[in-house]
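How a chain folds remains the central question behind the approach discussed here. This step matters because it turns folding into a mapping between discrete strings. The sequence in question and its structure tokens are set out directly beneath this paragraph.
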Amino acid sequence: MNVNAGKPLFSVFIPAYNAEHTVQQAIESVLAQTCLDFELIVINDASVDSTASIIDRYRDNPQVRICHNPQNLGVTGNWNKGVELCRGRYVARLDADDFYAPDYLEEIAAMFEHPANPEMVFTGVQLEFANGQNRFELPYRDNWVKSGGAFLPEVVRYCPIRAPSMCVKKSCYQKLGGVRDDLKIHHDWEFWVRLVANCQSVGYIARPLTHYRVLNAGGCTEQAIDNASSPADCEIWLNNLENGTLPYQLTDKQLSLLKQGMVDMVMAFAVFAMERGNTAAVDKHLAFARTLMRQPVANGSMQAWLYTRAAEVYFMEGGHFLKGWRFLLQSLRFGFPFPGDNRHLKLWARAIFGKKIFEMVRNQTVARSRFPYSLEN
């Protein structure tokens, strides 16, 4: 392939804010791609550490374009600016703390050649945890290409897409107006729903071609947990859907799936908030989840799961037994969440026998008792 002869096939952009420890690995992972038909745009978002000087080392590379923002634009501002700067047919956004496998672009290019002409392609990822443990996240076992309409229910329910694994035709960004800046944490989820609802086909590659770091200290996800941004974003999104102000509509069934997905997401954030000791954020997340579950979308099993999970959140730490008991007793009104689910038994063990015995039970059974629609994968 001719490198950067005219417009490149791919444009990859890396927004970086105070990423001195990781941005070089991200850049090098792009430059090491086996597919050479790309440009790389690195955006320094007014960093106050050594990020700018690290980025400037690549200024003489003909495939790299450097941009220094005079003021911090944040996640969505940089996302939209990066897309605007891209000249390639296909656009990929790589966060400064993530990195690609060497054949990411090559595999993506092959999938875009599929006869169904997919407009967006995403891959599995390898999750990189702060404690050094890694694991694959492959939401589907096999490669596939399917219509946007067929994939939409899965996006609204599970949101199986990790943003750094996604590559999108630039024409789709131009058609849909970019990423929303009024959503603090779910801007990517809303954009994937909007994109899938308006595209003909989507491709998936069942390989972990992107390395995704989880919950780095000070990251936007931690801030969203502490600030309870998830419930606020969900309310804005649902109000937009109700008012018909978005370039897509959801059927009643799809809207029901979206609300169930929101409950999953909010409850996951509630767990993280409890782990961080922020009980005020826990209360806000649980209150919003309960509000959604009172709506007609909730069946008995979903209600039972919500209250059981809420009890589990409060039983995680000492000093919250009364709240845990209250939610656990409320869950019994709806029976067991799902056939064979032993979470109730674990929680009763926690409540009656104390944390030590509960942890023994939990460690042996947690892998078999996940809520079947959980976003914790």
Residues 217-298 form one domain. Confidence is low (pLDDT under 50) at residues 356-377. The beta strands are 10-16, 38-44, 64-68, 90-93, 99-100, 120-128, 134-137, 144-147, 167-169, 201-213. The longest strand covers residues 201-213.
